[in-house]
Amino acid sequence: MEFTRNNNRQLLSKVATNDRHGENTPYFEGWKAYDSNPFHPTQNPQGVIQMGLAENQLCFDLIEKWLLENPDASICTAEGVDRFRDIAIFQDYHGLKEFREGVAKLMGRVGGNRVKFDPNRIVMSGGATGANETVMFCLADPGDAFLVPSPYYAAFARDLGWRTGLEIVPVDCKSSNNFRITRVALEEAYEEAQRSNINVKGVIIANPSNPLGTVLDKETMRSLVSFINDKSIHLVCDEIYAATVFGSPRFISVAEIIQDMDCNRDLIHIVYSLSKDMGLPGFRVGIVYSFNDCVMNCARKMSSFGLVSSQTQFLLAAMLNDEEFVGNFLRESSKRLAKRHHVFTKGLERIGISTLKSNAGLFFWMDMRPLLKEQTVQAEIELWRVIINKVKLNVSPGSSFQCSEPGWFRVCFANMDDETVQVALERIREFVHQGKEEDGASEKSKHWRKQNLRLSFSSSRLYNESLMSPHMISPHSPIPQSPLVRART
Amino acid sequence: MGLLSRKVTCNSHGQDSSYFLGWEEYEKNPYDEVKNPKGIIQMGLAENQLSFDLLESWLAKNPEAASFKRDGQSIFKELALFQDYHGLPAFKKALVDFMAEIRGNKVTFDTNNIVLTAGATSANETLMFCLAEKGDAFLLPTPYYPGFDRDLKWRTGAEIVPIVCTSSNGFQITEPALEEAYQEAQRRNLRVKGVLVTNPSNPLGTTMTRTELDLLLNFISDKEIHLISDEIYAGTVFSSPAFVSIIEVLKDRKLESSQVWERVHVVYSLSKDLGLPGFRVGAIYSNDPIVVAAATKMSSFGLVSSQTQFLLSAMLSDKKFTKEYLSKNHKRLQKRQNKLVSGLEKAGISCLESNAGLFCWVDMRHLLSSNTFEAEMELWKRIVYDVKLNISPGSSCHCTEPGWFRVCFANMSEDTLKLAMQRLKSFVSSITINNQSHQELKNTRRKNRNKWVFRLSFQSFHDREQEER
């Protein structure tokens, strides 16, 4: 079979056999560690706590209550089954009108009601993953490039470049100015690309930022719009964390910015989703909202490849059109996120670990630079392996987000319960304390080297990419098998 | 430097074809028994609307599946969070069991080899991304589903080269046709990566014979290329011969350890067999672990909603239900197809003998004013605008012989079908009368014909489309 397998491999496309899906990077090692030894408060209290998953688990009770009160939102219940056949048949790529209206209302609301979104411009896609890829297919050809301010979402490499053949040109942002995107940095990256004969088709940003958890201020937004307008290139704003903003400054959608600017609106495109704001990643609701009619029409045709299940559209249409529920949900969600964020950041402060000041997202950007033995990516990865192996927390190293400064880590805080938060904080406290005790303040670096830096796994079978992926719980895990296996973001 | 990608401006999405234009017309003037009895009857939509009552009654008896509950517990949170591209294990198990059941349990499927996608549309495109790229081609027997132009070529850059099938042998695939297609691809400097067939066939409504399947396997073996078998209509086979899946043939020929085993891939969906196109449930089944791994990662771009996976895992795990559903559904399809065939017969129209699918492949060659595609278009326009039936012209399916049309029968009530047949009968009678007086009224006829020339305005049509096979 081996010879056959090799022969057959040559018969596959480059896309199927290259590494541009990005899943062989160290980023996924943390996942594997978690999957082989997942924390459970009673059944596996020594397990790895998942802090690499940007999920919003804080408000399910609100949604569950709504579902109980609205059985007709399901086409399967006695109350809703009279709609079953119409919905089961419905595969029009325009999407259910009520669904689009609900989404447009939500987007408007999340933008502070300063902009009205047109339901007829709402185009569906297979999650934000599908939306980002679709937009790229519409805006650029293989070999073209997009500028992406770093640090950026680890899976952008896959979403923007894998099947599209596009290149990412990072625009490095620095901690010296809190990782703000500067006009200078953009210009530099653009010029350099030009010099290398790379055809830059646009800029893509995430606002609020993943992994920073910050919102872009008005000035930066205006500068961005002005930059792309000058160069006649596109601006794609991934606004999927828009409703996770808590505290000030408020979220400003690019839709609001262009209202007061002289700008070619054909260059402006928004990506949205319900995975973060509403905590529903399993429902695969991605949205492309483009101000460019050609792009909108093309994206709509492409949405055939990733339509939202009509059953799901129907349910969400009912939910999102319940304005009282949505208002209450958004308020409550912000409150809970704020509280959780506060518990963590204050807790870390007391331990002497600082984080980037943030007011959005489901994570914070943690500064572990003082703990690095040297300011290199290698040292960062070493520290990270210690955190996974010894401290047993799956956090995400900054290098997986292409951060240009080693030592930063993204830590998710909204995907666990309050007790687990305390356990996590306690582990960090112990770890830092231990470090201080054993080595004295100046000997921190030697401590990490003494540790066993090899990741230990219970089963090497997990590494055979062709048989399994990072997401299977090991059959040897002491945790009773959840019938549902969770994935990473 | 264009502002947008070439994909935006090119035509490979294929949505300017007449196939979609018919829908445009229907959308503007849809038939309704009460509100618009003179409207256009939709017969271009390969949907199965005959068995919803069975699904609805299952729902009534299974309230837990409807409300995110299992064993009395709410599992809403787990479902809401579940985005693992490996899919819900319970759903995959239920799905592969269902697939086996449809094939008379003569084959079994391994859940490790199945990849869930957002509909067969996504499955086909994803497989293409895995197997081909710009400069490559897949061979497809004509006539074929018009959406393949979009699904297989648009974003992947791959090409389709037709395997020409003709009415001389019931449009079956022959060896010379396969060889000719292969040569044609070479002439066009394309590297042939595989063959894709739809079995049961859309638009023919026939199941492939063992001879054809054997021929295909020999061909792909010999040329060392892939075979994709799109079997989304497998559960719609309502009369003999029984459906034979390519997997069954591989097993019968003991080819599990051969080189060819890993080069055969099956596409499936619940859109036709269960009548649930809105739920976007598709699947790729492959014995090549590299393909499974790559396709699994790609499915991130179009996963099946966890809400839907959960509902269907409960439904398809109910073996009593699936058995009853398949059996009743077949009977209803057969009955309805018979009504269409006999209705057509009364209008003096014959169709290809068929035993599957949601449509018939209808022979209207005798109604053409000439044996040309222009005449086919003319006839089609008359049928859409005057007879007010939206049917699909063979040219949109890349058929090489003018005069064939695909006519769907499972997406309307029995009464509507009856009305459609009456309209057709009247139309045919009127043509016949015309033909008889043709000799005498040659000039007048030429004048009349000019009235039927329509200039379609394409602008307004680009905006709308129905997903249909």
TrEMBL record, chain A:
Transmembrane residue ranges: none
Classification via PROSITE patterns: AA_TRANSFER_CLASS_1
InterPro entries, alphabetized: Aminotransferase_I/II_large, Ethylene_sulfur-biosynth, NHTrfase_class1_PyrdxlP-BS, PyrdxlP-dep_Trfase, PyrdxlP-dep_Trfase_major, PyrdxlP-dep_Trfase_small
Organism domain of life: Eukaryota
Family: Belongs to the class-I pyridoxal-phosphate-dependent aminotransferase family.
Annotated PANTHER family: 1-AMINOCYCLOPROPANE-1-CARBOXYLATE SYNTHASE-LIKE PROTEIN 1 (PTHR43795:SF74), BIFUNCTIONAL ASPARTATE AMINOTRANSFERASE AND GLUTAMATE/ASPARTATE-PREPHENATE AMINOTRANSFERASE-RELATED (PTHR43795)
Annotated protein name in UniProt: Aminotransferase class I/classII large domain-containing protein
Species of provenance: Hibiscus sabdariffa
UniProtKB/TrEMBL annotation, chain B:
Annotated Aminotransferase class I/classII large domain residues: 41-424
Pathway: Alkene biosynthesis; ethylene biosynthesis via S-adenosyl-L-methionine; ethylene from S-adenosyl-L-methionine: step 1/2
Needed co-factor(s): pyridoxal 5'-phosphate
EC numbers: 4.4.1.14
Organism domain of life: Eukaryota
SUPFAM superfamilies: PLP-dependent transferases (SSF53383)
Keywords: Ethylene biosynthesis, Fruit ripening, Lyase, Pyridoxal phosphate, S-adenosyl-L-methionine
Pfam families in the record: Aminotran_1_2
Leader peptide range in chain numbering: none
Catalyzed reactions: S-adenosyl-L-methionine = 1-aminocyclopropane-1-carboxylate + S-methyl-5'-thioadenosine + H(+)
Coiled coil (residue ranges): none
Family: Belongs to the class-I pyridoxal-phosphate-dependent aminotransferase family.
Protein name, entry field: 1-aminocyclopropane-1-carboxylate synthase
Species in which this protein is naturally found: Hibiscus sabdariffa (roselle)
